[in-house]
Each structure stands twice: as C-alpha cells, then as structure tokens.
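Standup notes
- DV: blocked on the single-chain target, sequence here:
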Amino acid sequence: ISLREIISKLPYKFIEILSGKRGVKLLDTSLPNVKDKRADLLVELEDKTIFHLELQTFNDKNMPLRMLEYYILIREKYKTNKIEQMVLFIGENLNMISSLSENKLNFSYTLKDIKEINCNELINSNDLEDKILAVLCNIEDENKYINAIIEELIKLDENKRKDYIKKLLSLSRYRIKINEKLIANIKERVMPITIDLRNDPYFKEGLQQGIQQGIQQGIQQGIQQGLLKGETKGLKKGILVLMDLGLKKEDIAKKMNLSIKEIDEILKIRN
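- DV (later): unblocked, structure below
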C-alpha cells in the first residue's frame, strides 16, 4: 500500500530507470471490467507509450494471466497497442516466468527484481519519493543513505514528516537489516515513533487484501520461532492483537499452525 502511494506521486527518475523513458503524465488506473480492476501504476511516457507497472511481493504462478488481462483492459480503455508492461518484484528469491505461450497465444512482459536497480540514481534524485524507493534496492552504504534520507525528513513540516516516515518504515520492512537502523536513527534524530498501524487505514486495507498471503507466512514463522524460544508471553500479545483486529480464534489457530487448545493455553499465561 505504501509503495503504491509513493509511486502515485510519479517519481520521475524511478520511472525513467524502469522504462528507459521519461514519464510525463499519470493516467487513471481503474480499468473497465465487470468488477472494478485497478492497476498499480499507469504512466504516459514521452513517446505516447503507456507504461504499466505492477508491484509483486511474492511469486505468483498466475502472473502471466493477470498481466494479459491487464493488457486487454488497458488497450480497450486507451485505444492503443503502444503498451509496455513490467512486473517489479520487491520480495526475496524471484522465481516467476514472464511469458505465456499456448496454442496460438504468445504474450510476454518485462519481469524485474527491484534489487537490480542502481540505488545511487534514486538516492541522488530531487524527488523524495525516489529517495524513499531506494530503500528497497541493494544499498552499498546504508549509513550514508540513512543520513541522507533523515536530512530530507527533517526539512519537512511535522505532518508531512510523519507521513513519509510511516511510508519509509513500511517499505523498509522488506529489508530487515536497514529497517532496524532506520528506526533507531529516526528515534534518535528526528522524532519518537508512535505510529499505531492498527489504526492506520492503509494497514487495515492491506490486512484485508493480504491476510492469505504475507500475514499467514509471517505469523507462522514468528510463532514457530517464538515457540522454539519459549517466548509465549510475546505470542499471547500477538494473538490478542489479531483478536482486536477481528480475527476469530479458529482463524488465528489455523494461520499460526497451532491448535485451538494451544491458543487457549497461551492466552492463560499471566503477563
């Protein structure tokens, strides 16, 4: 959600790096269909080509079919075949195909790992959105990057600063090592971090959309690690947070790979 919010500001250098051309105008991303379908980003490039970008955090075997559907809808809406499509992978261990060939159908698009992007071009951009996107790349000098981004954040008024810090930390969760450094530096040099993601509208939307994907894997890994370490009090807090978010005990048990009896035992532990 934060990544979509950032790219919706049209980070010029980022688009130029991905497409090889300069973006000149943002286009409406909602596409005609029986149900509302919205692309992650549509940009008209300087040569009138439409650049379609989809962001992907996990490997999806159905990605070619999804991109083909997008292609048809974009072509129908904008009445052009000058369409360039790209899937930008921001997760770990890219393992997807970028083409579909069956019967008389041959379809392909560009598949790119964000870690292949030269961070320096984004870091040196004049757009703060570009600088924030750089956190997802392979950063050679993390301390230099952190100092540079914090200097930019300090210049902002308080409301904008909070918003950009929230987005920066949200994206950096995909890069655990630099995320920890960012949190420590922001707390020390900029402001205390008191953002409650449970009350954040983007988090709530993301929870509903991704609960079967990222949350399931993350919770299972966290729970398994916690059980191995005996950190049952921490597990209890995690279970209570999920219950506050409206998940039933049965759903929590299933997602955590635990039995309801184990959930009940954890909830009995004193704080």
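- Follow-up: The mean pLDDT is 82.
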